Structures are given as structure tokens and as C-alpha cells.
Amino acid sequence: TAKLNSVAKAAGKLYLGSATDNPELTDQPYVAILSDNEQFGQITPGNSMKWDATEPEQGVFTFTQGDVIADLAKTNGQLLRGHNCVWYNQLPSWVSSGNFNVSELTSIVENHCNAWDVINEAFNDDGTWRSDVFYDTLGEAFVPAALNAARTADPSTKLYINDYNIEGPGAKATALTNLVQSLQSSNVPIDGIGVQGHLIVGSIPDMKTQLAAFASLGVEVAITELDIRMTLPSTDALLQQQKTNYQTVIEACQSVAGCIGITVWDYTDKYSWVPSTFSGQGAACPWDENLVQKPAFDGIVAGLS
Ligand code: G3I
User: Fold this and answer.
1) Which of 167, 220, 225, 251 is catalytic?
2) Residue ranges of the GH10 domain (predicted)?
3) What are the tens digits of pLDDT across the range 245-290?
4) CA-nearest residue, atom 17 of ligand 1
5) Residue whose CB lies within 8 A of the most ligand 1 atoms, among 21, 26, 47, 281, for a mutation test
6) What's the whole-model pTM score?
7) What's the pLDDT tens digit per position in 27-73?
8) CB–CB of 134/106 below 8 Å?
9) 51 lines ligand 1 (CB under 6 A)
């Protein structure tokens, strides 16, 4: 039977990957599938490299949990996406407190950003900047501060800006396009745009157009957090529609050379973030809660073939 990363590589992509999280790693059958690098060529830590996990107190860095995921990727021969550096969510209170002036918070951002999905979810859906401790204190300057620091810390790691609701054309995609162009014209390092891809069965935006538009900026593009949720209970009809939707999304990436890879936001419904956030919704992943492949799995394969 086909395996996702093998099919993706044969189709010219760099990887097909999955998110994962430390508490899941005691589940041996889960880990066995996750660790098969023909199935997944890349992994992303779902939580353990976020700010609250890595710098819980100012200047006290704890990479223990993040390193578990990094080591797993290394052992498995998988790529790693670092996730994330600057995000309004999952901040320790010493950062979100807003107790710092411009030069203090700039140093804090620079000190924290050593790689990865450097800027996460900086815009509101209407394309205006999100109000958070970074923007409210520093204005747009937190973006170049973080990117420059990340490049200095690790010259070989790809630096991404990552967001959701930028899958199709619209105000937010335009705002991100303008930001990338302005960073490029001021020589701030930016290598890629991460399109998260938290989608809903039956309403898939025009991703082909938008992924091509992002790639035409001269940066790489990746689908970084793909899942396609439905209102429960799942029915055969919904699962078939989900399969078609997965295929459409994958084909959009497949049609754009600059779309280099795809990551599902965990591969199984067993560990999906969706039901706890959207009550009554779920079944968003290509494997079900019993680690059995769903029609969506075949949709991914078909999209790459
Ligand atoms: O760590 C605590 C634990 O100590 C406590 O007992 C437990 C009780 O609820 O909560 C645990 O924290 C949870 C954490 O995941 C770790 O499991 C948080 O409540 C929960 O909110 C958090 O959810 C994560 C979410 O980001 C937070 O916004 C999801 O697992 C994670 O998949 C999700 O991922 C985000 C991406 O980073 C960015 N894009 C959107 C995506 C989906 O929201």
C-alpha cells in the first residue's frame, strides 16, 4: 500500500509530515506509524517548542521536551519544523504581562528567537495587525527583530511566517503579501510562508491561486498544519467529501513548484486539537481514532499522483 511521504517525494515535494506532541509518545502503535519515514518525512512539535515551554522564566531555557521531538526526528531520519517563536498564544505570563519597554522587549524577542516558524499569526482576519504584547509595544518592528535574530542564531534554518485564513485570496493574504514584500525590500531574511490549512469539509478556498501568488514572491511555501474538520457524527458521505477536499488541497500544492511540503496537524483523530476547540466538530485527520486510514488518506495519495 502507498505511503504518504514516499508518494510526496516521488511527486517532487520535499516532505509530507505530521504534527505530534510529547504526551502521545507513550502510545506505541501511534509512535510506530509516526516514526515510519516513508509515511512521514517531517514532524512538527504541536506544543513543546512554544514560548511557555522553552522559556518559562526570563532567560531560563528548557528544551527538554522539544529535544525529545528533535531527537525523535533525528532517529527516524525526518526533517523538523520548529514551531514557534513569536505568537500571541501560549506565552508565559512574564512575557504577556506587558511590563517591558521597547528596548527591553526587543531584546527579549531577539534572545528568544533562534529558529523556526518565527512569526505565528501576526494578523487579524481583516488584514490589520493583531493587538498583542509585541505589536502593542513594538509596532511592526517585532517582525524584523525576530527574523534577524533567528538568522543570526542559525544561518541555515529556513525562516517562515505562518498564519491561518490565508489559504485563499482575501484581506489577510494581501496583508501578508505586503509584509513579505516590505521585508524583502529592506533585506530582512524571510525564506517561506506557512499556510496553516485548518479547513472545513465542503468549504475549501481557492488555494491554487493563493499558493501560486505567495510562491511568485520568491519565497518557499508550505502547508504547515493541514486538517479538514466536519460536524460530527461523520457519515460515509462526509468522509467521501473530505477525501475529495484533501485531494483538492494536495493538488493545489502539487500544481505550484514553490509549494515544497505538507504537514498534517497530527495524522490521527485520536490526538486532533479540533474537538476540544470546536464543540461538535472533528474527524479532521487522515487516520481515525483507532489508527485506521480513512478515505482522506486516499485523497492525499490521489492528490500527489
Ligand atoms: O499543558 C497543559 C496541561 O498541564 C493541562 O493539564 C491541560 C489541561 O487542559 O492543558 C495542557 O495545555 C494544553 C496544551 O495544548 C497541551 O496539551 C492547552 O490547554 C491547550 O490549549 C493546548 O492546545 C494547543 C493549541 O495550539 C493552543 O493554542 C494544541 O494542542 C495545538 O495543537 C494547537 O496548535 C495550534 C498551532 O500551534 C498554531 N496554529 C493553530 C493550531 C491549532 O490551534
Assistant:
1) 225
2) 1-303
3) 999 999 999 999 999 999 999 999 999 999 999 999 999 999 999 9
4) 47
5) 47
6) 0.94
7) 999 999 999 999 999 999 999 999 999 999 999 999 999 999 999 99
8) no
9) no
Q: Ligand 1 atom closest to Cα of 164?
A: 39
**Does the CB atom of residue 269 touch ligand 1 within 6 A?**
no
Each residue of 59-79: b (16+ CB within 10 Å) or e? eeeeeebbeebbebbeebebb
For ligand 1, say whether the CB of 47 is within 6 Å of any of its atoms: yes
Q: Is the CB of 273 under 6 A from ligand 1?
A: yes
- Ligand 1 center–CA 47 separation, angstroms: 6
Question: Could you tell me if 135 and 83 are in contact, meaning their C-beta atoms sit under 8 angstroms apart?
Answer: no
The whole-number pLDDT of residue 114 equals 58
Amino acid (one-letter) located at 226: L
Which segments of 255-286 does DSSP mark as H helices, in order? Answer: 274-277
Tell me if residue 57 is catalytic.
no
Strand 198-200 relative to strand 220-231, pairing = parallel
Closest C-alpha to 194, from 296, 46, 84? 84
ipTM for this model: 0.91
